Amino acid sequence: MRYSVPLLALAAGAVLLSGCGKSQPASEQSSATAGESAEAPAAPPTPAGPTPDQAKAMVASLPAPYNTGDIDKGRMTFGQCHACHTPEQGGPNMTGPNLWGIFGRKAGTAPGFNYSDGLKASGITWDAAQIDKWITDPRVVVPDTRMSFIGLKNPQDRINVIAYLKTVTSTPQ
Known about the structure:
Elements: H1 5-17, H2 52-60, H3 71-78, H4 117-120, H5 128-136, H6 138-141, H7 155-168
Helix pairs in contact: 2-7, 3-7, 5-7
């Protein structure tokens, strides 16, 4: 039976990934020499986000109904957005702009990103309600936007994403 190269590459990748997160049996672990730890090196530190209490207060500061959003569900739904946007401070622009500091920012003004003329001229200042309209269907808000996202149709998904965004794109107060 003949397989194409992409199929073989996918199969090899699946085999390699199947062991992710599994610890090796003791017989396969290297033994530590005197004075060395047998533990794996620590992961690099991640930027500190808000504490759970700070995150809760940040969401509570949003107007209704956004102040009822579920941060964890919002993080999961934001996975769709993460393909094009980074939310963390100092994160890169990707296909879409970095979203750090989006609340209160005028649309089309994040440094280093080449926005469509329509978005730059929109006059939008991003707040929860404007973000909600935008992520419902960007092309309804700005018809000539280059953003190809079809939108989040479920209102609760949008509420959750906005709550999550507030906690990851803003400095805790």
